[in-house]
Design brief:
Its main location: cytoplasm. Pfam families: HTS. By secondary structure, this protein is an alpha/beta fold. The protein has eleven helices and eleven strands. The chain starts with a strand and ends with a helix.
């Protein structure tokens, strides 16, 4: 089944070239199907890159998915033109009256700042509070995961002495968890961050379960409140093959002398083509979330989400 996206969204051309089935809004309205309604709060500076990464994974499913994008009204992105935002995005005020089967909160390049110092923190906090009654399942990524853990459970983040940068080996911490169904006992995921959560802080919260982790420095990877259907993912399974390369090349060009990403280039040689070790993990992760924690459980009448969640 296809993923429904706004008419003329640039990501559509890229995804169609990869044989991912997308349809625009006009065609989708002609079908008598109740699609899954997914809201994406995109906090990344260059919106279209993150859009494409997430839509690629959401579109690799037998389910029809309808996506709305929002950006923060309290901070206007500087790397994406306003006419682009006006055409393809809304604000929280424009969707706060709606209900959604699922929501994704992306990472953001603000991790070295205290949460309360982030220009749009009050708006993010309001959106996360709203999600408890208007979204059936919420999927937080990287800084979005740190923000969610802090807002909902008071778990702090800590700066690390050296950037966590590369593709790290992880292992499962629980058996038979639906979000990780089909995962190998060991699997690889990219990370790129300057901060972390401490495992001991997470273990103090009885509602949270650590689903997967890596050895240091990457640490805890997937955390969940299964009852509330909240997921917090510290890595970037959605990354494109060259995302870490682009970060490395940018910092090298700027004279920052970055470390070579771990487990990324053959023989740690940046002149060679990176090895993708996480593609299947990414598709499984998002497909499992959509199927087991959104489609299989969300009420058919979407306006019933609030009462169902309270039950």
């Amino acid at each position: 089944m296809p993923i429904k996206i706004p008419n003329a969204l640039p990501a559509a051309h890229i995804l169609e070239g990869e044989n991912i089935f997308v349809m625009d809004a006009d065609r989708a309205y002609a079908q008598d199907i109740r699609p899954l309604k997914i809201l994406i709060l995109n906090l990344m500076p260059i919106k279209y890159i993150t859009e494409t990464q997430l839509l690629r994974l959401l579109g690799n499913s037998a389910l029809q998915v309808e996506v709305d994008f929002i950006y923060t009204e309290s901070y206007t992105p500087s790397h994406t033109p306003m006419d682009y935002l006006a055409q393809f995005y809304g604000t929280f005020d424009e969707v706060r009256h709606k209900k959604y089967d699922g929501m994704i909160i992306t990472g953001a390049p603000v991790e070295n700042m205290a949460f309360e110092e982030v220009a749009y923190w009050d708006e993010i906090a309001e959106i996360m509070e709203w999600s408890k009654s208007h979204v059936y399942s919420t999927f937080h990524i990287c800084w979005g995961a740190q923000a969610g853990l802090y807002y909902h459970y008071g778990i702090p983040k800590y700066e690390v002495p050296e950037k966590i940068f590369g593709v790290f080996k992880h292992h499962l911490c629980v058996e038979h968890e639906k979000l990780l169904r089909g995962f190998d006992d060991e699997f690889y995921v990219p990370h790129s961050r300057h901060t972390e959560e401490h495992k001991e802080d997470i273990l103090k919260v009885p509602e949270l379960t650590i689903l997967a982790e890596a050895e240091q420095p990457a640490g805890v990877y997937a955390i969940a409140n299964l009852e509330k259907r909240q997921f917090f993912i510290t890595g970037h399974a959605e990354y494109d093959p060259n995302t870490l390369k682009q970060e490395y090349d940018r910092d090298e060009k700027a004279g920052l002398h970055p470390q070579i990403p771990v487990n990324y280039y053959p023989n740690d040689d940046p002149t060679q083509k990176p090895i993708v070790r996480w593609r299947s993990v990414a598709h499984l992760l998002f497909a499992n979330w959509l199927n087991y924690y959104v489609y299989q459980e969300t009420p058919y009448e979407i306006d019933a989400i609030c009462s169902d969640r309270e039950d």
